[in-house]
Design brief:
Rossmann fold; globular; 7-stranded parallel sheet; 2 domains; 329 residues; alpha/beta; 6-stranded parallel sheet; 11 helices; 19% strand
């Protein structure tokens, strides 16, 4: 009998981490709130209604979880979080199906809200944290990080010179929170009104007050399209989401991270600010809320080279450990 794992993860950073964590599993089925991913080991994808605190949607999703579990009959269920994991954790608890939970990398200080609920009501068979300090504080297990978020590996990528006008990519992810503060900083950049630079700005639901001299505005894009944009960019300006961090690492991209903060109503909490404190490196510059965005010059963009092929940042040691946990009797 084939061993199948059902993966529950919200789109974005949660799903990015999940795909790294189950990279050694031969067959996976995904449940997510957005369908924007393709991998050889994915046999099917289900789209679930997204919710944060709506009890009616949670109630409906319990029956949806039951339907998916009965239809797919997985060997085990795995989640990296997001509220959509809760109905599956509950049904697994009732049905005695193995549920393994890995709390998100973005929670550097304490467990995520979803993690806290799963831990409190013991809706799991195995519970892991990706930071040793959080695991110790929350009395959970540490299994390692699903990818090289701290840029600890010494990569030697193949590069090539920039051809044509350099590209600055701006991305704010899939969040429904406004991020006007970031766009206001862009307007003040001299290169924003310079046609020698091409801007590609992924705005989500945000609306720009004025457009760059040379640019393309997109509200949302697929993972593969975003990867191509990241690859070609000389500089990326990004919110500090886990999915974005992993993609930038893969192309060893020069990034200016601007974490969303709750004080400006840019997110419900400060987890992006917390992760920002951990990732500053020779290629990652983090702009804290009290700081002004540095002036970007055309010369520095032209001097940068482009990584031609993505680097695999997956932590395979951790992925193999997780595979054993998922499929052991």
């Amino acid at each position: 009998m084939d061993k199948k794992v059902l993966v529950i993860a919200s789109a974005g950073g949660h799903l990015t981490q999940a795909m790294c964590a189950v990279s050694q599993c031969d067959e996976i089925v995904i449940v997510s709130n957005k369908v924007n991913i393709k991998k050889d080991n994915i046999s099917k994808i289900y789209k679930i209604m997204d919710t944060q605190k709506n009890p009616l949607i949670h109630f409906f999703n319990v029956f949806f979880a039951l339907y998916v579990l009965l239809k797919e009959k997985p060997t085990a269920v795995f989640s990296t979080g997001g509220p959509i994991a809760l109905p599956f954790a509950l049904v697994c608890k009732i049905s005695s199906l193995k549920f393994v939970y890995l709390d998100t990398l973005s929670r550097v200080i304490e467990l995520s809200n979803t993690g806290k609920l799963i831990k409190k009501y013991h809706l799991y068979d195995e519970f892991y944290s990706q930071w040793k300090s959080v695991a110790s504080k929350s009395n959970t297990k540490y299994i390692g990080k699903c990818f090289d978020i701290l840029s600890e590996n010494n990569y030697k990528p193949m590069t090539e010179a920039v051809e044509g006008k350099p590209i600055i990519l701006v991305t704010v992810g899939t969040s429904q929170y406004d991020f006007d503060r970031l766009f206001e900083m862009l307007y003040k950049q001299p290169l924003y009104d310079n046609a020698e630079v091409r801007w590609v700005i992924q705005t989500g639901h945000n609306k720009l007050k004025h457009l760059p001299a040379n640019g393309e505005i997109i509200d949302m894009t697929t993972r593969s399209e975003m990867e191509q944009l990241v690859k070609s960019a000389s500089l990326v300006i990004s919110h500090c989401g886990i999915g974005s961090i992993n993609q930038m690492l893969a192309y060893q991209k020069e990034v200016l991270f601007v974490p969303r903060v709750s004080n400006f109503n840019e997110f419900s909490d400060d987890h992006q600010l917390q992760i920002a404190n951990e990732i500053s490196s020779k290629i990652f510059t983090v702009l804290m809320p009290e700081q002004v965005m540095p002036t970007i010059t055309l010369g520095e963009l032209l001097d940068r080279k482009i990584v031609t092929s993505p680097i695999d940042t997956t932590n395979y040691k951790m992925a193999n450990k997780l595979k054993n946990v998922l499929f052991e009797s």
